[in-house]
Known about the structure:
Blueprint: H1 4-8, H2 30-48, E1 53-54, E2 57-58, E3 60-63, E4 68-71, E5 74-76, H3 81-102
Amino acid sequence: MKSDVDANKAPGASMYASAEKIYPREMKGRWDSLSKLATITLLGLFYVVPWLTWDDRQAVLFDLPARKFYLVGLTLWPQDFPYLAMLLIIAALSLFFFTALLGRVGPRRSSGWSSGRRERVRSG
């Protein structure tokens, strides 16, 4: 006698059901265009800045044997790095603070994703 599972199974059918495939959707709009523009601009700067000159040297030059760092017209010595580190920490904390504060301001637009609020499921 066969079991119920075997009786309902078509001959040659597998017990494995593959998951439905998920395909990404192409996005178009203002933010997508802005993202592409920012990517192209930043990569362009990354590749072009080493060839810029300033006062007969590279605009951005890290001279490790001489322990000098030239950033456009500014020369940084090793003793300047605590100030630079403090400036970068303040910039990072400011970015975090203003993003947390101002990220909640402005119009709420639905992008198809959940807004973070739980929706109540009505039982029939």
